[in-house]
Amino acid sequence: MKRFSLRQLGPGLLFAGAAIGVSHLVQSTGAGASYGFGLLWALLLIHLIKYPFFQFGPRYAAATGKSLLHAYLKLGKGVLWFYFILSLLSMFTIQAAVTVVTASLASYIFGSGLSILSWSMIVTAICTIILIVGRYQLLDKVMKFIVVTLTISTLAAVAFAFFDTEKSVELTQIMPDDSMGIAFLIAFMGWMPAPLDISIWHSLWSLEKAKDGVITEKSAIFDFNVGYAGTIIVGICFIGLGTLVMYHSGNTFSESGTGFAKQLIDMYTSSLGQWTFWIIGIAAFTTMFSTTLTTLDASPRAMAETSELLTGKKIKYNYSLWLILLIVGTCSILAWLSSEMGPLIQLATILSFLAAPFYAYANYRAMTDPEIPENARPGKALRILSLVSIVLLISFSIWYIFTLFS
User: Fold this and answer.
1) Distance between terminal CA atoms of the chain?
2) Is the distance from CB of 28 to CB of 191 less than 8 angstroms?
3) What ranges in 111-216 are assigned the alpha helix state H?
4) 294 to each of 176, 289, 291, 394, how far by Cα in Å?
5) For 6-405, CATH number?
6) pTM surpassing 0.90?
7) What are the extents of the domains in the chain?
8) 126, 127, 97, 123: which is closest to 109 by C-alpha?
9) Helix, strand, coil abundance in the chain, percent, nearest 5
10) 3-class SS at 150?
11) pLDDT (tens digit per residue) in 261-290
C-alpha cells in the first residue's frame, strides 16, 4: 500500500492557514472569555456542518482537474456572476479585517512606534513580495513552516495556562438567550473555521499543487482532513486560553486594534508570567500572518479565474492586476477605519455567515453532477449530511435576520 508523504501536504495546510485567524484568535478567545467552554458545542457543530462543503473543493479538483469556479459556471452564468459580485463586496473588508489584526499584533510585539496603518503597509508588502517572487511554490513552503509554528506555540501556551491556573474546568454547554449573545454566536459560527468560499480557494490551490504531480482523490481528502483537524484543535486551544485566563475576570476585549493586541498578550503574560510574552506573541502573530498571506493570494487568484470564465478570454497579468486592486482597496479601507477593528470583523463575519447557504448548495450541486465519475461522488452518508447541513445553514441565516430586526 502506498504511504502518504508529508510532501503531499500543501493545499490542506494553506486552508488551515487561511482558516486559523480572526475566528480563532479573536472569536474563539472571546468565546472562552465570555462563556468558558460553554460554546464548545458551537465550534464542533459548525465544523461538522461545513465539513462536506469544504471537502468538496479539493475533491472536485482531483476528480475533474478543474476548480469549483468551472462548476459554478456550469450551474449557470448567473451563479458565477453572483459569486463574482459577492466576492467583490466582501474581499476588501475581509482583507482589511485580517490585516489590521496582524498589524496590531506586530505593532505591540515588535514596537518601533509606527502607526497601525504603517504596520499594515509593512505586513502587506511582505506578503506581496512572497507571492510575486515565489508564487505558489514559496507560499506552500512558507505556510508549512507557519502552520507548524503556530500550532506548537498555541499548544505550549495552553499547556502553560492549564498548569498555572487554579480555576476548575467546567464543560457545561451554554445557549445564549440575549440579543448580544445571539449576535456573538452568529458571528462566531460565521467565520468558524472559515467562510465557505475558501472551498473555492482550496480547489485552486489543489490545481497549483497538481502541477508538481498527480493528486488523487484519496490524497486530496487526506491532505484536507489534516488541515481541517488542525483548525478544530487550534480552535479548542484558543477557547481554552480564553477560559483559563479571562473567564469570570470581568474583562472584555477592546475594539481598537492596538488595544486588542496589548490586552490579549498582557492578559496572558500577567497570568502566566512575563517570560511567556514571546510564546503568546508568536502564537498570535503567526496565526494572523498566515491568514493575511493566504487571503492576499487566494482572492486575486479566484477573481482572476472568475473574470476569465465570465469573459471567455485569457487576460494578461490578470492575477497581478487583481492583487494590486485588492492591496489598494484594503489600504483605502484601513486608512479610514484602522482604529475600528470590531466593526470591520463583525461586518466581514456576518457577510460570510449569510452567504454560507449559497456556497453550500453550489458545492453540493457541483459534486453530485452526473458528469462527475460515480466513484468520485460523495457517498450516501456524506450526501445526507450535506442536505441536512444546507437546511441548518439556511435556518441559521433566517434566525439571525429575525433576531437582527426584532
Assistant:
1) 58
2) no
3) 116-164, 179-190, 198-210
4) 33, 9, 5, 28
5) 1.20.1740.10
6) no
7) 6-405
8) 123
9) 80, 0, 20
10) helix
11) 777 777 767 666 777 788 778 878 888 888
